[in-house]
TrEMBL record:
One of its GO terms (biological process) is immune response. It comes from the Eukaryota. Residues 303-339 are annotated as: Disordered. Transmembrane segments: none annotated. This is Interferon-induced protein 44-like.
């Protein structure tokens, strides 16, 4: 009788093996224990264009994404001390940044560093709230001065006292950073196609629009994917798992699909929020420092290409014969400039 029972009611198949949350091979070969070397590189960093005194980075993104927390984290790590988070970091579903604020940075010895980061009001889906796309474009072009108070109803115009009608290359943004929380995307299964974008359509359109403006202006841009420690338990346990987490990798792919930005230009990070002191988690510091260094490299590479293009145009305008004469006869070049 037992045989007949098993024939009609076979034992259920064993459940499939769960998808491993960690990949066998990391997609990014991070070099750990190099924090001091990264800080040293930032201390000796100089813009690769003579008209620029500070590399200017602009951060933008949805409300609560972690723009101000990223700036706070970088500042705390570079100075190697806990700073007052209440000055920058806010909580809740509202934008804590009401004015265009440019943060300058110092190293542990108090020496100023040659880059600044601009923070703006958060992006919102509604047209009558959040930062205006026109204001973001004006900042990219260098038209809006520091401490401009954002008006969610109307964009900054030439009549405003904080409007810079004649911006220099030093006033313009040299890299755009779009800060987006990892929980904007859900991920499951082996394939990245099984992800869902939780950002509303209007917010995605705004982000895509500002990205196209940056492309038109030839300004490099990247995405910082924040709150990755809340998105994956392995990353929360050890930030070193961030580059081998299948969940984070899928969220990066979903972000890439939604915004059109390559995954190589999407950087997963975990910010400080004032609850922990920098230096207590050197691996967390390493991820943030590595991300900042790559962003500044992008900005500097863009300036270097601009300088090379300007030099080539000057050489072409001068003409080959005149250029050879000046190169071979310094006296000729000096007398020529005095005329």
């Amino acid at each position: 009788m037992g045989v007949v029972w098993s024939y009609f009611f076979p034992n259920p198949s064993p459940p499939p093996d769960p998808v491993p949350l960690l990949m066998e091979t990391a997609w990014y070969n991070m070099i750990w224990n190099k924090n001091q070397a990264l800080k040293g590189k930032l201390s000796t960093l100089h813009p690769k264009h003579p008209a620029v005194q500070h590399l200017r980075i602009l951060v933008s993104g949805p409300i609560g994404a972690g723009k101000s927390s990223f700036i706070y984290s970088i500042d705390s790590i570079l100075q190697n001390k806990k700073l007052n988070a209440a000055e920058r970091v806010t909580t809740g579903n509202f934008s804590g940044t009401k004015t265009f604020t440019t943060s300058k940075f110092k190293d542990e010895k108090g020496h100023p560093l040659s880059f600044v980061i601009g923070d703006v009001m958060g992006l919102e889906s509604a047209d009558d709230s959040g930062v205006k796309t026109k204001d973001l474009v004006s900042i990219l072009k260098g038209h809006i001065k520091d401490n401009y108070k954002f008006n969610p109803i109307s964009a900054c115009s030439g009549e405003d006292i904080r409007y810079n009608s004649c911006p220099t290359l030093n006033d313009k943004a040299h890299c755009l950073v779009l800060v987006i929380p990892a929980d904007s995307f859900t991920a499951s299964g082996h394939e990245a196609e099984k992800t869902n974008v939780l950002l509303d359509t209007d917010s995605i359109k705004k982000i895509q629009n500002i990205r196209r403006k940056a492309l038109d202006l030839r300004i490099p841009h990247v995405v910082i994917l924040t709150k990755v420690d809340l998105a994956c338990p392995h990353v929360k346990e050890d930030i070193k798992h961030v580059y081998s987490s299948r969940t984070i990798h899928q969220k990066m792919q979903a972000c890439s699909n939604a915004l059109g930005i390559p995954t190589s230009d999407i950087f997963p990070v975990s910010n400080y929020h004032g609850d922990n002191e920098p230096g207590k988690n050197p691996d967390k510091d390493a991820v943030l420092l590595s991300t900042l260094t790559q962003i500044l490299d992008y900005a500097n590479d863009s300036l270097e290409k601009m300088k090379e293009s300007e030099d080539a145009e000057d050489g072409f305008a001068m003409g080959p014969r005149r250029r050879r004469s000046m190169e071979s006869n310094p006296d000729f070049a000096e007398s020529d400039t005095k005329q």
